[in-house]
Amino acid sequence: MDRRKVKETVLGGLIKNNPTFVLVLGTCPTIAMTTSLFQSFAMGIATTFVLIFSNLFISLLRNLIPDKVRIPCYIVLISTFVIIVQMVMQKFMPDLYETMRAFIALIVVNCIILARAESYASCNKPLYSMLDGVSIGLGFTGALCLIGIVREFLAGGAFAGMKIPGFPAMSGAGASAFGFIVFGCMMALFNFAIQKINERKEKMKAAVLPLGGGSAAPAKEDKA
User: Fold this and answer.
1) How far does CA 195 lie from the centroid of its chain?
2) Whole-number Å distance between alpha carbons of 221 and 183
3) Phi and psi dihedrals of 89, rounded to 5?
4) Tens of pLDDT along 61-87?
5) Which residue from 12, 56, 57, 66 puts its CA 20 to 30 A from 76's CA?
6) CA atoms within 13 Å, Cβ hemisphere of 187
7) Helix 94-105 to helix 70-92 angle, to the nearest 10 degrees?
8) Which is it for the CA torsion 119, 85, 135, 196, positive or negative?
9) CA-based diameter of the chain, in Å?
10) What is the dihedral of CA 157, 98, 103, 113, to 10 degrees?
């Protein structure tokens, strides 16, 4: 295994290729499913599960799937794992499933999953594809949870369903329009932080002299 590629794959979805804050994919569930932390977490985990196993099987079958029908084949594979998620949630978390029913089904056509299937899993080995699914899924889950925390706090004066004494709820903070505002502000903060970190790294690299380098010796003056 290439350790450098593993590191890039694992960290890519969390920071450099974060699907929500950098690639701006999956905005529909990002706005609709972030009214609370619990709902955000459930949506993120469901998507992560589908990402991991769809990436794995698409990578395993990448040399057998004809190019002309690859997208339909990808959707069939993805929908298989979405059905598994639906069955598990319906059995063990029926109340949560009822609130998320439509958006769980829409995971089948989630652009994050289709994008990773087309751009990564279809041209990489199974292990790397699974790691990419884990990374992208955790990056998506983390972004949803951050937005969910802010929206739940502002809209209901609560954290993870627990009321915070003395904090008034803001009317209209749970609306989709307000969700776009929170999403935009957090995306801007995320990219600003990444930019500052990258600038600091560049300054540190510039401050370090290359190996074997040093100040050049002053030129000798020609004697008349």
Assistant:
1) 18
2) 64
3) -65, -40
4) 999 999 899 999 999 999 999 999 999
5) 12
6) 19
7) 170
8) positive
9) 97
10) 100
Using the structure block, give the residue that is written with the tokens 């002309």: 68
Q: Which of 121, 92, 129, 113 is nearest to 29 (CA)?
A: 113
Token couple for 96: 């949560």
What mean pLDDT is predicted for residues 198-213? 74
Where are the alpha helices (H) located in the chain, listed in sequence order? 3-11, 27-32, 37-60, 70-92, 94-105, 111-119, 126-156, 176-207
Share of the chain above pLDDT 70, in %: 91
CB neighbourhood size of 109 (10 A):
13
Q: Over the stretch 153-193, which tens digit does the pLDDT of each residue have? A: 888 778 877 887 777 767 776 788 888 999 999 999 999 99
- Integer Cα distance of 86 and 90 in angstroms: 6
Closest CA relative to residue 121, chosen from 68, 83, 73: 73
Contact 69, 99 (CB under 8 A): no
Which tokens hold the place of 27? 């905005």
Provide the CB-side half-sphere exposure for 144 (13 A, CA): 31
Beta bridge partners of 162: 159
Residue that is written with structure tokens 């749970």 in the block = 174
| Contact predicate 11/5, CB 8 Å | no
